[in-house]
């Protein structure tokens, strides 16, 4: 499965690979090199692939169309050395968010990932436009968020200390910033979060001269040693205002989280988790 622009995940299933000029692996690899190409719809995708792979594409008949969930069924004839090859088996071009031989699987689709040591501020990367330089793993889909029909969003904090932390949100009718809010929270490992008060719950978080905290879920401020919360991406560096958010420059961004089932004091190292990566996924079905 490979995301291409804003619309499709290309799923290739060859039942008779010996009849195809290009193998499944070759096509997937070539499509993967075009992940950052402009968005395409079905017509433009067909044109793009004809030009790139020297292939003619034919719609399947209704009787032979196995594709579900809006997947487009095509049969193709690939050619090499000016010799036309026989058609390969039907192939489903799946709408974004679906995969499987017949587009019958609704998957989580990664749109962003950051890890310790990347160096670039996560908030800067997340809010950057499509032409900006981004050091993190960022899909162009982020810039088309409101048009994708997103149903759910999942933030995963990957750790080396045990199970990964997963926080799931309702992504319907949101933009790339508004989904991360308490009112849209579906599930998290923190049992007290739905009922507790928060002074920050946003992607933008808090930023001033000696502090930069994004993807920030904060409970309360009680002077730096008494600050409490659930999650924070800290990015100011070793001279940040609070000791708990100071991270060596070579390790930025710092991805902090409560390692308990409730909010914790950020200064309590026994309950403070530090993730290696933060990954954001979207899903098109409920």
Automatic annotation (TrEMBL):
CDD domains registered for this protein in UniProt: EGF_CA
Instruction: Identify the residues that the record assigns to the EGF-like domain, covering every copy.
Output: 92-103
| Source organism superkingdom | Eukaryota
The record ties this protein, via PROSITE patterns, to:
EGF_1 (PS00022)
How far does the signal peptide extend, from start to end residue?
1-20
> Which keywords does UniProt give here?
Signal
Which SUPFAM superfamilies does this chain map to?
Answer: EGF/Laminin
The record's InterPro entries line, in alphabetical order, gives:
EGF
Please identify the protein, giving its name as recorded: Hypp4555 protein
Q: Which gene encodes it?
A: Hypp4555
